[in-house]
Amino acid sequence: MVVFCFLVDQKRKVRRSKPAAGTCSRCGGGASVADMKTATRFCYVPFYWKSWRAIICTFCGAILRSYG
Ligand SMILES: [Zn+2]
User: Fold this and answer.
1) Residue 52 lies in domain
2) With contact defined as beta carbons under 8 Å apart, do 34 and 22 qualify?
3) pLDDT per residue over 12-43, tens digit each?
4) CA 13 / ligand 1 centre spacing (Å)
5) How much is the pTM?
6) Quick check: is 3 in a domain?
7) Which domain of life does this protein belong to (predicted)?
């Protein structure tokens, strides 16, 4: 039996982060500068990675600002 898979998803990972000035607009938590890595997966097999930097909330994980 052949199973066709058309599932594409993205997995976001914080590689490292350090505290930054500013607060989250959603919850008021502290912000931090984070090196992010996003893996785009097709059928759970990663085929594309992208590294980027963002200001994220350390409390709720919201992305407050992203660079590239
Ligand atoms: Zn927040």
Assistant:
1) 8-67
2) no
3) 999 999 999 999 999 999 999 999 999 999 98
4) 17
5) 0.74
6) no
7) Eukaryota
